[in-house]
Amino acid sequence: MGRYRWTICSLVFFATTVNYLDRAVISLLKPYLEVEFKWNSGDYANIEIAFKLAYSLGMLGVGRVIDKLGTKMGYALSTFLWSLAAIGHAFVSSTLGFSVARAFLGVTEAGNFPAAIKTTAEWFPQKERALATGIFNSGSNVGAIIAPLSVPLIAESIGWQWAFIITGALGFVWLILWFWLYEVPARHAKLTKAEFDYIHSDVDDLAAVAVETQPKVSWFKLLTYRQTWAFVLGKFLTDPIWWFYLFWLPDFLNKQYGLKGTAVSLPVAVVYILSSIGSIGGGWIPMNFIKNGWPAFKARKTSMLLIALCVFPIVFAQKLGQVDMWLAVLVIGIAAAAHQAWSANIFTTVSDMFPKRAVASVTGIGGMAGGLGGIALTALVQKRMFVHYESIGQLDKAYFIMFWICGAAYLLAWVLMHFLAPRMKKIDIDA
């Protein structure tokens, strides 16, 4: 049992891989682009802010669009547009042009996670959602693994423009597979009754046996629930940490250890290989607790506390790196793995607490909050701090402060989420 739902999970995994591959390319081309366009840390931070701001604004409405169009057409439209945006980077000839290209990429890539979480809610019973989320979310790590292994090689062989074109074109391959294989369970011609019944086996999931026809829920109503704010604050505090790894890890390895070009490929790949393990492991931990009789929400929150504790050792990354660079890579990799394990669970809390017709909208609200958190971290901390310490030749102090922020963010997020949603309470929006 499970042939089709895991096929769907594989498709979402592929889309998430392409999504993160496309957004990671620029961090690996930074050394080439710095020379060609004469960027400093401030210029790069501004381009990063353009992406995050557009991503946040995209999240403002993308969940509603996906809820309205449905997962099939909503996911396809988002992927088509972000693939065009990724390829468009190759034709940019100025720093301003890169900001515009990144903004277009950000607003279109915003559709991935609301569509992915909604797809998971449609195709998996509650007890399997964290594992399914962990599997598809590991695509973000695979994308980040493929990027350092391919992008510098492409750039050095045939030019940085082709790195954007080749990676961006993968989205069109996914679109072919998506239209060929995807349909919602209620309309899937080859889905067996046994698997259909298993997908809808949750006691409180009886409404999912048909395509939902209830009116969509307004943002204003969703924002009246403490559960929405628990998710929003959790994303606001922790999403920026992952974006820091994604956009600044190659720069850290370059500035701290002198790694350039293809030399950065292996350590970056190792970090994201560990992240993939963390993503799937993060889905397995609560599933194992549930199989041992724990309530789903208790299993989820206990897992998230353990995961938050696993991030904290990153504060020692530079000290360990003084002994051996690979110790720093290892501890950063463990923290990145813990983030992905955290993501597998925090995303699943939405489908735990909200009806399926609101899942994409709540995910969009949280995604917007994560983007705004990323903007705040970049503008208020990274941009000012990194430029200042770089100007006085003490960039290592900027990274030291950032690693402390990374170590504390998840514990703070867990405390706030526990305060806002101490117990599992399924939202009855129509009550």
From TrEMBL:
Question: Species lineage, top-down?
Answer: Bacteria, Pseudomonadati, Bacteroidota, Cytophagia, Cytophagales
Keyword Nuclease listed? The answer is no
- This one is known as MFS transporter
Cross-referenced PROSITE patterns, in alphabetical order? MFS
Superkingdom = Bacteria
Q: Where in the cell is it found?
A: Membrane
Native organism: Hymenobacter lucidus
- Which Gene3D superfamilies does this one have? MFS general substrate transporter like domains
CDD domains, per the entry: MFS_ExuT_GudP_like
Q: Which UniProt keywords apply?
A: Membrane, Transmembrane, Transmembrane helix
Q: Where are the membrane-spanning stretches?
A: 47-66, 73-92, 160-181, 229-249, 269-290, 302-320, 326-347, 359-381, 401-421
Matching PANTHER family, A to Z? Answer: HEXURONATE TRANSPORTER, SOLUTE CARRIER FAMILY 17
Topological category with respect to the lipid bilayer = Multi-pass membrane protein
The record places domain Major facilitator superfamily (MFS) profile at 8-425
**Pfam families named among the record's database cross-references:** MFS_1 (PF07690)
Q: Which InterPro entries match?
A: MFS, MFS_dom, MFS_Na/Anion_cotransporter, MFS_trans_sf
